[in-house]
Design a protein that fits this description.
Elements lengths: L9 H33 L4 H30 L3 H21 L5 H22 L2 H5 L5 H28 L3 H23 L24 H18 L5 H9 L4 H30 L1 H24 L3 H28 L7 H30 L4 H23 L8
Helix pairs in contact: 1-2, 1-6, 1-7, 2-4, 2-13, 3-4, 3-7, 6-7, 6-10, 6-12, 8-13, 8-14, 9-10, 10-11, 10-12, 11-12, 11-14, 13-14
Length: about 400
């Protein structure tokens, strides 16, 4: 039986959540806007396939690094060295990408992107155990809510600021902005939340071996697989949304308008996430997860029709609805994942294993989507995106179906 952690102050909770702001500024800007724009500059005639390959290799790095870095931090007993060192290396990688712009060798660009994936996951893996590590069970719902707020704020800031910068060709400024946000948030977490040493872990572990026992921790694996299905749906289209706006909807200034739309969709998700958290307290998180993932499936299905009948107005409406459903899902699903963690002593490793449900779909989905769009291009761009949205709808539906089978008594 582990000792209860001390209550965390509001300042501590905000500081602990702050790096999620930087994490989402980074990927909220790079995945849908900055990297696709640079790839289009390097490989204009095969941008979809090239983007899919870059994303797949980067995701493969994360798939290995996150659980290993988390496990190493468990053994060290203090996650701060890996978090601080990994963040410093990430800032270096961002500055390298800033220096490359769109005029360097494509191979140098790919290498720098992969370096960024490596360094980000060195600090992100151990940091994923922050809430179960330092927040008592009675405060984890609030802590997860702050994490979601920071995630949304980061996505909005990354998409809005970097979208404008990329439209002007200021790639160096975009990467410098991301690096500055990471530096400030890391200063906050180390100056406030990490000022005290971590609470000691129990000496005995419940988990024998690297992976938790499947029968004993069925709920943990159920949440992992469910989140993998939903993430497959997200990354079946996320990085290609900019191309969809340009090639199918024919939006003027797709980088600027696309980034603003992504920011608006993320802002729509803030009240939705808070409402989902309150509903989860009343009726339980499972119902909220099922409803929100079902809504995501329905919205993706409507995008299939939109591909054949493009409308900028309809795109805005559906994107805002999707933002609300997605944020509602993520706010409740994260709290559910913390609830079913097998052991606090293995929190870094187990959160790293759970992180596979984010990373593995990034390894598979973009390559599939890129290949589908390229294969369908001779017929029409609309057909390729219709198939991509249909695949996303299918993955979301599978996630909703699978999570409905979860029984918390299996935890």
């Amino acid at each position: 039986m582990q000792a209860e952690l001390p209550r965390a102050s509001l300042a501590t909770q905000l500081a602990l959540a702050a790096p999620w702001l930087a994490y989402n500024v980074q990927w909220g800007a790079l995945l849908p806007i900055v990297i696709p724009a640079q790839v289009a500059a390097f490989a204009p005639h095969a941008k979809e396939l090239a983007l899919g390959v870059v994303m797949d290799v980067g995701a493969a790095i994360a798939l290995v690094v996150v659980p290993l870095a988390g496990a190493l931090s468990d053994r060290m007993g203090d996650r701060r060295p890996l978090v601080g060192g990994g963040a410093a290396a990430t800032i270096v990688a961002l500055l390298v990408l800033a220096a490359l712009g769109t005029h360097a060798s494509p191979w140098a660009f790919v290498g720098a992107v992969l370096l960024l994936q490596l360094t980000t996951n060195v600090w992100g893996g151990p940091y994923a155990a922050t809430i179960p590590d330092r927040i008592p069970a009675a405060q984890r719902g609030v802590a997860s809510a702050w994490m979601m707020v920071m995630s949304v704020a980061g996505t909005v800031a990354g998409a809005a600021v970097c979208g404008v910068l990329v439209q002007r060709g200021a790639y160096a400024a975009a990467y410098a902005f991301i690096a500055a946000v990471l530096a400030v948030t890391m200063a906050a977490v180390f100056g406030i939340a990490y000022a005290r040493p971590p609470s000691p872990h129990p000496t005995a572990r419940r988990n024998a071996g690297f992976f938790p026992n499947v029968r004993r921790h069925r709920a943990f694996y159920t949440v992992l697989v469910t989140r993998a299905f939903v993430t497959m749906g997200i990354y079946s289209i996320y990085e290609f949304f900019l191309y969809f706006l340009a090639d199918v909807v024919h939006v003027r200034s797709p980088v600027v308008n696309g980034s603003l739309l992504l920011a608006a969709a993320a802002l729509t998700g803030v009240p939705a996430a808070l409402a989902a958290g309150r509903a989860g307290d009343r009726v339980g998180p499972l119902r909220v997860v099922v409803v929100s993932s079902t809504a995501m499936s329905a919205i993706a299905a409507l995008f299939v029709a939109l591909a054949f009948h493009p409308s900028w107005t309809a795109t805005i409406v559906l994107a805002l609805l999707y933002g609300a459903a997605s944020c509602a899902y993520q706010a409740v699903d994260w709290a559910l994942a913390i609830q079913v963690l097998p052991a606090r002593a293995d929190a870094g490793k187990d959160m790293g294993i759970w992180h596979v449900s984010f990373v593995l779909p990034q390894l598979i989905a973009p390559g599939v989507t890129g290949a589908v769009i390229v294969a369908c291009k001779p017929v029409s761009p609309a057909l390729g995106y219709a198939v991509a949205f249909a695949l996303a709808a299918l993955w979301f539906a599978l996630g909703a179906t699978f999570v409905a089978r979860l029984r918390l008594r299996d935890a």
